[in-house]
Amino acid sequence: MIRRAKTAKVYIEVTTDDEDKQGDAEDDSDDNADDSWHPEQNVSNKKSVARKPAKPREPKPKKEPKPKREPKPKAERKPRAPRVPKGKNKEPPTDAPTVQQPEPQIPAAMEAGASSEREGPQEPLRVKEERLSFPMPISCTPSGSNFTSSTNQQSQVVKKEEPEEDFTFDEPAVKKQKTSTASQGSRPIRQAQSVDVFGEGLHMNWDPIQVLAQRTGVEQWVCVNVAQLLREENTIPFLVRYRKQMINYMDADALREVQVALEELCGLAKKCQSVIQTLKKDGVLTSELEVSLKNCRTPDELDHVYSPYKKGSKLSKARRAKELGLEPVALALLQNPQTLNLHSYVKPGTEGLSTIEEVATGVEQILAHMIAKDTDTLNHVRSLCDRSAVMLESSVSKTALKEQQQQQQRGGEQKSKPKDIDKFQLYSAFSCSIHRVQPHQTLAINRGENLKILTVKVKVPDAIKNDFSRWCVNVRWRPKGFAQPELMKILLDAVEDSYKRLILPLLCRGYRTKLTAVAEKESVAMFVRNLRQRLLTCPVRGRAIMGVDPGYRHGCKLAILSSVGQILHTDVVYLHSSGGKNEAGKLRHLLLKYSCQTVVIGNGTACRETEAFFADLIKQRFFQPLDVSYW
C-alpha cells in the first residue's frame, strides 16, 4: 500500500471571534482525520506551526543492534477522500512537485500593527490557519531528513491580497471643491488678491486696508472685498442684498461706516499728493519732507507737516535757521558731537549768527522741528497719553464776562443781543476725562465755543512731558558719541521746545477732532432711533388698523397692526381682477378675525379704485356686525 503525502498551506489573516471559532472546529476535524490516517504518529500540537531547525547534537556511542521484531499484519484501509476547502471546486494537479516554501513574510500592515503595539496597548492579533490537503505522488517528494513519506511537511504561506480602495464607512464621499469666487452656500467668500484702494497712481507709506480695519474693527479680508465692490460702483443696498457672503453679512449701517472711513483715507491720499505737487513747484520739496508727508495718517498730521511751507505764512524758525546754514551743525550734534565746535560758526555782523547764543538757538530750533516731525516720536507720545488721565476742561471766556459786565453798566441800552451765558452754566467749570466725555457734552461745549462763551482746553499731565523728554534724550535722539554738557543742554532745550510748541498743540487738536467726530456720529444715530420710534407709533390710539397699499397687476398689499403697533398679519389681495368677490370675502374674514374696524388706504396707483371698492362694500353692510370705516 502506498501512502500519499499531504502538504499544508497556511495563510495569516485577521479574523473575528465567530470566524475564529469556526476555524478551530475545522482544525479539530482535520486532526481527527490525521489520527485515523497515521495511527502510529502522536502529534502534540493540534495547530500546525513552522518548525525551527534543530540544533546539532553530539554523536552518542553506538550500541549493539537489537533484533527487530516483525510487525503484526494490519488490516488494509481504504484511502480517505481528500478534503476540498470552501470556495474551491477543483483539485490542483497531482503532478505538481512539492517545493519547500520559504519562511513566511509578515505584511507591511501587520508590521505597522506590531509597531503600534509597542507604542500602546491594543487588541491582540488573531491568526486564522487553514490547511489544504491533496494527494501527491511519492516520486515528486524530495528525499532528505526533512521530508519523509510518513510525515507531512507544513509551511506557512502568506496570502497576498489585492490593494483595496481607501474607503471609510463613517466619512462622506469627498466632494470637488470650487475654485471660483462664486457664492458657496452661506459661507463667507474671501478674496486673496489685494486691491488698489487709492488708484490714480497714489501711494502712501502705510497699508490702507490695515488702517481701515483698525479704525472700523472689521476683518481685513472684508475690507478688501468692500473696497473692491465700492470701487466697481456698487451701492450699499445692492451689497447688503446680493453680496452678503463677500461682506460677511454686515448690515447697512456698519457698511456705511466702512465706506465713510475709506473715503476719508482716499481724500487724505489725494490731499497729500496735491501738497507734494505744490511743494515741488515751489522748489522746497526734499526726500525727507516727502517721506514725512506720506507717513501722515490723519488730516491733522498732514496740516502739521505742511503748515510751515504754506504760501503767505511766515517762515518758521527752523526754515530761517536752515537758510543760515545751521542744518549741518544740528546733524553733527547727533552723529559726531565730539568734533563739533560751535564757535567756528559764529559770524559777527550776520543776523542770527553774530553770537554763540544765536547759533545755539538756531540749532535748537532745527532739532525741535526734526523731533516734532518724526513718526516714532509721535507714536510714543500718543502711547504715553493713552496710559494717562488726559482731561477736557471748559470755562466761561473772558470776552463773554467782559460783555456781560458792560451790559450791566449800560442798563437798558442794548444795541446787540446779549449772550445767554446761563444756558452754558453746566459747562462754566467743567472738567472730565477724555475717555468719559459724553457725545451731548461734546456738542454743547463746541456750540458754546463757537458762540465765544466758553473756553475749552485739553489738559495733559506734566508727567507725560517728563517721561517724553527722558525718552528722547536717552533713547531716540541720543547722540552717537560723547557730547559736552553745552551740547546736551541744547538737545534737552530742543526736546522741551518741540513738545511745548509743536507736539502738544497737535495732540490737543487730535483729541478735539476725535471727540467731535464721535459726537456727530452718535447724534445721527440718536435721530434715527427717535424717528424710528416715532414712525412705529400707532396712528389711532386703542384701535387695530388695516393698511392697504393699492395696486393693479401685483395686487394690493395688506398689513394689520394691533392697537400697540404690532404687526398681526400681512397678505396680498387682487381687488381689481375678475376674482374681486372672493377677495372681498377674504377681507371680511381678516377684519372679523382681528376685530379691525379702521382701514387706511395709501395714496398711490389704483387708490381711487380701491377706495370705491371699500365704499361699495361698506354701503352694502358687507362687514356686519363690524362698523368699518376707511381713511
TrEMBL record:
Polar residues bias spans: 179-189
Residue intervals passing through the bilayer: none
InterPro entries with a match to the protein in the record: Ribos_protein_bS1-like, RNaseH-like_sf, Tex-like_central_region, Tex-like_dom_sf, Tex-like_HTH_dom_sf, Tex-like_N, Tex_YqgF, YqgF/RNaseH-like_dom
Biased composition (Acidic residues): 15-34
Biased composition regions of type Basic and acidic residues, renumbered to the chain: 55-79, 116-125
Region span, Disordered: 1-125, 161-189, 398-418
Domain YqgF/RNase H-like: 543-631
The protein's name in its UniProt record: YqgF/RNase H-like domain-containing protein
Organism from which the protein derives: Coilia grayii (Gray's grenadier anchovy)
